[in-house]
Amino acid sequence: MLNKLYSEKESIVHKIDVKTKIIYTFIYILSLGLINNLVTLFISCISLIFILIVSKINLKKISIFIKSILPALISIAIMYKFVLNKDNFEILRTTSVLIFSTVSISCFVMTTKVTEMAKAIETMIPFKTIIPAYEISLMFTISLRFLPIFIKEYQRVKKAKICRGIYIEEMKLKERIKNIMGYFLPVFMLSLERAYNLAIAMETKGYRKKNRKLKWNLKRLDYLTFYMFAGYLILIIGGR
Amino acid sequence: MSISVKELSYKGEDNKEILKKISFEINEGEYCFFIGETGSGKTTILEILMGLLPGNNVKIFKKDLFNKENIKFIQKKISYVFQRCETQFFQTTVEKEIQISGDLIKAIKILKLLFLDYDEIKKKSPFELSGGEKRKLAITIALLKNPKILLLDEPTTGLDGKSSLELLEFLKKLNEKGLTIIQTTHIMEEVMEYATKTIVIRDGEVGYDGKDVFQQEKLLDRCRLEIPFKMRIINTLDKKNIYLKKNEIENFISEKLC
Amino acid sequence: MIEMSDITYGYNEKRIFKDFKYSLKKGEFLMVFGKNGSGKSTLAKLIMGITIPDKGKILIEGLDTSTDDIWEIRRSLGVIFQNPEDQFVGTTVLEEMTFILENYDEIDIEGKIDKALRKVNLIDKKNEKIENLSGGQKQKLALASALLLKPTLLILDEASSMLDPKSRKELLILLKKLNESKVTIIYITHYLEEITYASRCLLLDEGKIIKDDIPSKFLEEDLLRYSLMVPFHLKLLMKLNKNNKLNKDFRLENSQSVVDEICQYL
Q1: Rounded Cα–Cα distance for residues C225 and C212 (Å)
Q2: Which one, of B111, B135, B106, lies nearest residue B122 by Cα?
């Protein structure tokens, strides 16, 4: 599923090291808290649009994300205006922060391959002797990889139920909850078998905990983007 | 005719055309095989016939399948056995699985015909049975609803030779008693031994529909399928004016070699 | 190359192997047969090091599978599994093969990948998504990934059972070629007609070796006794072989030329 979100186009943003992208996205979202006037709002907006253009992401896909948070945005806006009586700039700021955060995360997700994300997270986790970085990253990779499998298996089980005369769409909520084990069990067992097979395959292909050489390996491009990002931060702080 | 399909089309994910206006008919009592390259749409056809996927112009028992009033009625008379038969299990023991599916006594009878002892497996979870046992259980459950049509998706995959044979012989007996069977496979020997009719699906279209599929050498080759050795021998001997039937071949050879 | 001594292994109160002994010479193309439950898959898992015997040792080129040597073993061991759907980590062909090379800290990644893909005729699918490949192509990909590190041993656990006949044949021809360049192959199958590609066959039943010999020494009666169904053309070939009416070595192809030749005897 997340793989479907990956935008195939080659752009500079795709080439930036994932670890720096994670840091930039995180700090960008934090920096949105620094917005206290129209200038800073404008700066953060323009920077984001700049990144969107450079990354050559299909804008239609981004609009899907925005549409999905639209109801939340509208309800917050209404609440701010009529219940909490905040002023217009506050409303604009909050909704913008929400939109910019969503868009920047989408931008990250759409320019990063899932396998690279997992590796980056594993490399970045500090104190590896105390924190089980390998296991966390493995859980992350496997969960993401299995999400589409769960969905597919669930659809298959739904079909199997129809064959046995069980039509879940026609049941009321109470009945549906009663029947949930009947869906959970086969989906779980089917996915478990696939997970087992995959685990064996991964192990025989050499995937293991010891001697995982995880280096930061930053290239020239990453240092260049560091300067650009630092520039952005200076602008934002200066614009306050 | 039991099943009548006219210009059925189906589009899958990403609007990919999987079935392109296919038409065929299957009469009551046929043992029909759908063969073709993997991914050619065979499983899709079975799922559409079961009403699991949307379609058009499909008549079963002279009723329009995709009419909301008919579909449940028709689905009660058709059974489908998935390729991964665990998809259909959802109870913790075989005993419970059968209890919710139908008559226990009938189930025990069917299992016996399939060389499975009910008492041995009743307390086990259906998921911990061996591949062959799972298939046999799935078929038993499918038969408990007394279907008129049985759909099977590659039922012999993963089974060893003996279990395969037991299964297919059992299906043959059911077919002789009047059950219409529709099956997909890529094992040509099964088609040779059991089919009363074969439909070849190539690129979402019907490549061949009839009883003499093994005369279609070029088509089979394009679908990455083979003519079974026995069939080749029969055809070659035919050309030499030695006419033999499938079941006579082995004796003929034993005689000639001793 | 492989030495298995006094292997005892079982789970759930069921002994699968007891005092099992076997040794395999380098360069063999071994086919393992047996009905379901005979232990063939477990045997494969033991050799791969996925399961460790309760008693006894498995040595591959002198390295013990139950110790950390197993990672050294896995460098020269390629494995291909039955289900083409469940054995890939990556989304594209390139990703999958890169994954393996990264696990072993290899350099010249592109070069090695190209070489391996060329060996299985998949070079044009280098950037293809794995889900768009056919079953036969997926198994070829699995073979290519196994070939990346120039293995000396390949294990295929019923790798052909989900493939159409042509793909099965193509896979076996590739394997035969590899065997000719000195790769040892262990191939588990229940399609007995594939026996003719093997240099050696092993028949298992209930965790015991029933027969360990060259393919032509296997007779129909032996196989039937152990619940294996012998396909028609193999029966025919065995009969001809038994009556010494075969002057070629034990080879069989489902092709018209072979049929014509056999029909001469009839």
Answers
A1: 16
A2: B111
How are beta strands C2-11 and B205-210 bridged, if at all? unpaired
- Asked whether B157 and B85 are in contact (CB, 8 A), the reply is no
What Å distances lie between residue B150 and A59, A198, B80, B95, CA to CA? 49, 33, 6, 23
Q: What CATH fold (topology level) applies to the domain B3-215?
A: Rossmann fold (3.40.50)
Which residues from B are below 8 Å from A185, CB to CB? 89-92
Q: How far is CA A87 from CA A96, B9, B216, C12, in A?
A: 14, 57, 79, 70
Please give the Cα distance from A49 to A63 (Å, whole number).
13
Segment holding B153, helix H or strand E: strand B149-153
Does the domain at C2-76+151-229 match CATH 3.40.50.1010? Answer given as no
Please tell me which of the candidates C167, C232, C260 has its beta carbon nearest to residue B224: C167
| Residues ≥6 apart with Cβ < 8 Å to B107 | B98, B101, B118, B140, B141, B144
Q: In this structure, what DSSP letter does residue C38 have?
A: S
In tens digits, chain C (266 residues) has pLDDT values of: 787 877 777 766 677 888 888 989 889 999 998 888 788 888 998 998 888 888 888 888 888 888 888 888 888 899 999 888 888 887 889 888 888 888 787 788 888 889 899 989 888 888 888 888 888 899 999 999 999 988 999 999 999 888 888 888 899 999 999 999 989 999 999 888 888 889 999 999 888 889 998 887 887 777 888 878 888 777 777 777 777 666 555 566 667 777 777 777 76
Phi/psi-derived region of residue A217, left when phi > 0, alpha when psi is between -120 and 50, beta in every other case: left
ipTM over 0.95: no
d(CA B159, CA B133): 9
CA-based nearest residue in chain A for residue C97 = A205
Neighbours of B91 (CB within 10 A): 19
Neighbours of C244 (CB within 10 A): 7
Residue B98 to residue B109: CA distance in whole angstroms: 12
All structural domains of chain A with their residue ranges: 2-125+217-239, 133-204
CA B23 to centroid of chain Cα atoms? 19
Of A157, A163, A190, the CB nearest to B80: A163
CA distance B71 to B92: 30
Location of each CATH 3.40.50.300 domain in chain B? 3-215
Tell me the three state secondary structure of residue C146: helix
Looking at the complex, report in whole angstroms how far the Cα of residue B52 sits from the nearest Cα belonging to chain A: 6
Q: Which two tokens stand for residue A235?
A: 């602008």
Return the domain boundaries, chain C.
Answer: 2-76+151-229
Q: Which of A124, A116, A167, A176 is nearest to A141 (CA)?
A: A116
What is the model's pTM?
0.81
The Cα–Cα gap between B150 and B142 comes to 8
Label each residue of A3-68 as H, E or C: HHHCCCCCCHHHHCCHHHHHHHHHHHHHHHHHCCCHHHHHHHHHHHHHHHHHCCCCHHHHHHHHHH
With beta carbons less than 8 A apart as the criterion, state whether C48 and C155 touch. Answer: yes
Q: Would you give the DSSP letter of residue A209?
A: S
Could you tell me how far CA C168 lies from the centroid of its own chain?
A: 12
Residues 81-100 in C contacting A (C-alpha not used; CB under 8 Å): 81, 83, 85-91, 95, 99-100
Q: What are phi and psi of A197, to 5 degrees?
A: -60, -40
Q: Which of A165, A181, A186 sits opposite B87 (nearest CB)?
A: A186
Look at chain B and count its residues. Answer: 258
The DSSP call for residue B60 is E
